[in-house]
Predict the 3D structure of the following.
Amino acid sequence: MEDRRIIHEITPLMGKDVLYIADRHKKEFTYPIHNHEVSELNFVEHAPGVRRIVGDSTEVIGEYDLVLITSPDLEHVWEQHICQGENIREITVQFDFRLDGDSLFSRTPFISMRKMMNEARKGLCFPISAILKVYPMLDSLSSIKEGFYAVTQFLTILYELSKCEGARPLATSSYAKIAVEDDSRRVLKVKNYISKNYMDEIRLGTLADIAGMSPSAFSRFFKLHTGRNLTDYIIDIRLGSASRLLVDTSQSVSEISFKCGFNNLSNFNRIFKKKKGCSPTEFRENYRKTRIIV
C-alpha cells in the first residue's frame, strides 16, 4: 500500500512578500500531499478525473476546480488519478495577510471576506458560477507586473468569491479541529453539546431541552437554521473525529469506532464507507504518513 507522506511545505513566499503566483500548464500532477503556513487559492482547469484530497474530503473533480484553504494544518493534494488531460492549467496563489485583528482588513468593507477566510480553514470549494465570475481576473493575474495592482486584483477576486453563493466546506470541522461557531445561540449551545458528547449516546430530547423547544419543533428548527438533518450532523461529527484518529493514531478501527460514539462496529464500517467511499482501514492506508519538513 502507498505510504503517503504529508510534507510541511516551505513556500516561496518569504519576508515582506504578500503574494506568490504560479501559473503553469502541465500534463500531470506529481506533487505529494502537503500543508503550509500561508493561505492558498488553487484553480485547476481541463483536468477532469483528478482526485482532490483536502483533509478527510476526497472528490474527483470535473473540468474546473477552485478551492481556498486558509489553515496551516490542513493537508491537501491534487492527484492524477484517472485524469488524461493533455493541457492542464493550474493557477496557485499563496498569500500571507490577515483579515482579523486590528488592521485594515478587520474593518466593515471586509466582513464577507473575513467570514469566507474563516470558513476556508476547512477548505472551501466554489461552484462553477463563482469560477466564471472571477475567471478573467485569475486568467490575467500572473501577467500583472506591478505588485500593487496584482494585490488589488487578487483582493477583488477574494471579495467577489466572498459574495458568491454555493461555496461549500470540504473537510469536516472535527477533522480540521475547527471550533464550533453559529449565529443562533440555541443552535450554538446544541452544537457545543454535541462536540463535547459525540462519543456518548445523544438523545433528541436532551438537545431539545437545551434549546428550550419540543423535540419535533427543535428538529425542524435545526434543519431550517443549518440546512442539515440533525442525525446527519451528529454522524458527520463522529466520522470527522474518527477520520482524524485513523490518521493520527495507531488505535484499532474497533477502538476508534466506540471512542467516537458508534456502538456497533459493522454499522460504523457501513456508514464510513457510504460517506467516504472507502472502508476505515482503506482510509488509514491512504493517509499513512510521516511528517517531514522541507
Notes: The CA atoms of residues 199 and 261 lie 4 Å apart. Confidence is low (pLDDT under 50) at residues 1-6, 289-294. The longest helix spans residues 230-248. The radius of gyration is 20 Å.
